[in-house]
Amino acid sequence: MNSPTNHCLKNPLLSNVGFNLAFHKNNKPIDYNILTVIELTDLVKVVEVAPEVFWVGVNDWNRRVFDSFIPLPYGTSYNAYLIVGNEHTALVDTVNPGFEDLLLRKVSRVVKPETIDYVVMNHAEPDHAGGIPRVLATAQNAKLVATRRGIEMAGVYYGVPPERAVAVKDGDSIDLGGKTLRFLEAPWLHWPETMFTLQAERQVLLTCDFFGTHMASDRLFAEDVGDGLLKEAKKYYAEIMMPFTLFVQRALDKVAGLDVKVIAPSHGPIYRDPKRIIAAYEEWARGPLKPKVVIAYVSMWGNTEALTQAIVEAVAAEGVEAIPYNMVVADVAHVASDLVDAAAVLFGSPTLIGGPHPLIASLLEVLRCIRPRVKLGAVYGSYGWGGGAAAHLKNRLQSMGFEVMGTLEVRGKPGKEDLEKAAGLAQAVARKVKESVIKIK
Ligand code: FEO
After folding, report:
1. Atom 3 of ligand 1 has which residue's CA nearest to it?
2. Which 3 state secondary structure label does DSSP give 376?
3. Angle at CA 143, nearest 5°, toward 137 and 149?
4. What is the 297 CA–ligand 1 centroid distance (Å)?
5. 24 upstream amide cis, omega within 30 of 0
6. Atom of ligand 1 nearest to the CA of 190
7. 229 Cβ partners below 8 Å, 6+ apart?
8. What pairing do the DSSP bridges indicate for beta strands 165-167 and 143-146?
9. What is the pLDDT of residue 226?
10. E runs forming strands in 123-251
């Protein structure tokens, strides 16, 4: 920001409520790219991301897990947006329970919270909708706007009565007075009721979970975050969006039909250059799988580890990328991220009490949840007095639609012949990966 100048909000609603806030304004012309920060403490910072579209979200710096299994090394944020028209005001999405006070304090920097007319719920999950009861209790004339399924879920989760709710369908709009909200149904991103809200005049698309990143940051805009952002966005994609690849593709087609200038999700940074994240999603959802093999394993006494070393070397010798993950220490988010575009996955597990090691069994449950496109695999491992892990894993993988190219179980410490068999299995998988041109239609 350069050349700080003081000016006041021009919107009549704002002057009506008596605010006279000092802004810092950069010297660019007023368009989407302007970063106008209402100068308050960081804790109650409000940012105008487009004219009269205000970020009133919060950072959750300390959260370390989402849905009780997704690691959040950088925390997350719950972005809510206040859109102020000449006649009406809408709040799009709210915040996780516990952050309602901060949300309302932020809203109060722009309008009186009691004057909110519409609370738009793009998604019913509590990290965005958990603040709805408090907001509706504060803004007693406000209506909740959501898809038909969303209204139903708002009743179940938040006790919103039907008379406080307005159901919208694809293409419906609400005129705020000089500001139009258009609603686009975008189901299963990441629950069935999800939708997008488009601020039509400025083409600001509010996508809630879609295009999000689990990242708390004082950098609100993607362009200020640096190259690490897409790595985090890919992890988020793997865990939140990949289960719904078909719906991601449909949503991408819908977005392609718009002329979006700003993508403002409800987790992580806002994209003032939407092409960047759209291209990444196109690649993750529709791009070809890569010549890389994920090798997820556990070893208790070094025997499955020895097989893993032979497998890694054999895959690499074929010119295919081998990515081993020891699941005792691996971050499941990294594994999920590599499964977005890996062409094969190998599972190594010792037999433990007649079945696979619990950490590998758990990883298969993660796979069931995140539904990667990869459907080529193999299984290997060691045992002490009786096998069984390989057969169990093979059946489990086949039930998820995998082609299992082979299983290998070795008793005790692998000998030369065992290591050659492991290398042979890995070589066969790597060669099939190389021969395959794998695209999701
Ligand atoms: Fe960010 Fe599906 O909630």
Report:
1. 125
2. strand
3. 110
4. 30
5. no
6. 2
7. 213, 215, 222, 268, 269
8. parallel
9. 85
10. 143-146, 165-167, 173-175, 180-185, 195-199, 204-208
Q: Percent of the chain, pLDDT > 70?
A: 89
Residue 125 CA to ligand 1 center (angstroms) comes to: 5
Kindly tell me the number of DSSP H helices and DSSP E strands found in the chain: 13, 25
CA–CA separation, 150 vs 147, rounded Å?
A: 5
The residue whose two tokens read 């390989």 is 390
- Residue 190 CA to ligand 1 center (angstroms) comes to 7
The per-residue pLDDT for 41 is 53
Please give the distance, rounded to the nearest whole angstrom, from the Cα atom of residue 196 to the centre of ligand 1: 13
**pLDDT > 80? residue 441:** no
Going by pLDDT thresholds of 50, 70 and 90, the confidence category of residue 361 is very high
The identity of residue 143, as a single letter, is K
Q: pLDDT at residue 8 above 70?
A: no
76-120 tens-digit pLDDT: 999 999 999 999 999 999 999 999 999 999 999 999 999 999 999
Q: Are strands 81-84 and 89-92 parallel, antiparallel or unpaired?
A: antiparallel
Q: Is the pLDDT of residue 17 over 80?
A: no
CA atoms within 13 A of residue 396's CA, in its CB half-sphere: 20
End-to-end CA distance of the chain: 45
Q: Which of 240, 241, 267 is nearest to 252 (CA)?
A: 241
Ligand 1 centroid to 314 CA: how many Å?
A: 40
Are 280 and 227 within 8 A, CB to CB?
A: no
Q: Which residues line ligand 1 (CB under 6 A)?
A: 123, 125, 127-128, 190, 209, 267
Residue whose C-alpha is closest to residue 299's, from 353, 366, 356, 363: 356
Which amino acid residue places its CA nearest to atom 1 of ligand 1? 209
